[in-house]
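Chapter summary example: a protein plus zinc ion.
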Amino acid sequence: MSDPEKRLTVMIDKLRDRGFRLTPQRIAVLKILAASAGHPSVERIYEQVKTTFPTTSLATIYKTIALLKELNEVLELGFSDDSNRYDGNRPYPHPHIVCMKCKEIIDPDIPLLSDFTEEVTQKTGYRILKHRLDFFGICPKCQDNGE
Ligand SMILES: [Zn+2]
Ligand SMILES: [Zn+2]
């Protein structure tokens, strides 16, 4: 995991360069994304920001994320049967593990993945641009709760 403080600084600098006005609400969105604990959905970010800034609109969240996506500063994880989830802490392709019970998503550390990508390149001749690798299961916390 990258240092959330550093990620926040990078995001703020990039958005400022683009002339994006950084209101306290938008900074709050960036802070959540810089840490991306559990890989939040738009709804989750909205709920969190609203506890401090009750007048925040959902559009503010969407707009901030859209811009970060454009700047490759957030990774979007789409799911066919659930909300998109975001990782602004590591905004590049990496494996994820999803708890099917509580929907928490974490980044397992799998150092072998670069070798794996290399092997795929060699076997297929493709130039690999990105990848998507998700593991699904039940997290230790949910297992303790009898799942
Ligand atoms: Zn769980
Ligand atoms: Zn991640």
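Key point: The beta strands are 75-79, 82-87, 96-99, 105-106, 134-137.
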